[in-house]
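User: I'll paste a sequence; please echo it back and then give the predicted structure.

Assistant: Echoing your sequence first, then the prediction.
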Amino acid sequence: MSEPIVFVGPVVKGPPPYRPVLLPGPTALEASSLDELERHLARAGLRVDLDDPAQVSWDGGGREVWVTYQVEVSTFIGMVRYRQVKIERQDGTAFWEPIATQAEFEGHVRRHRPDVDLADPLQVYWADHPGEWSQR
């Protein structure tokens, strides 16, 4: 299996937030949206399927992630008791904590980021299955 031809890095705080992009050449660019990434690809004469991991490597989230979040919740795995939760402090530093329940999650976020609206998808990112926690 060959290496992907496009590498898209994790979101870097802006302004505006952007993702580093590495194209063949090698050419290093920055994209602040999916549209901008597509324009870079078109200018480079590249036709790639952005959903094909053999063509594009997404680091730090897929094609839908273009902003940083104050709170991020990891993938839900039913047989694992905890989900990893990243909270970005107001000073810009961040930390990860294992969280087991919705109540624990809400208390943890309120303690560290009382300004975050847990219902706002621009502030809280769920990798999948929002609000679901293991029953273990």
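Residues 11 and 19 are 5 Å apart (CA to CA). The helical segments are 34-43, 102-112.
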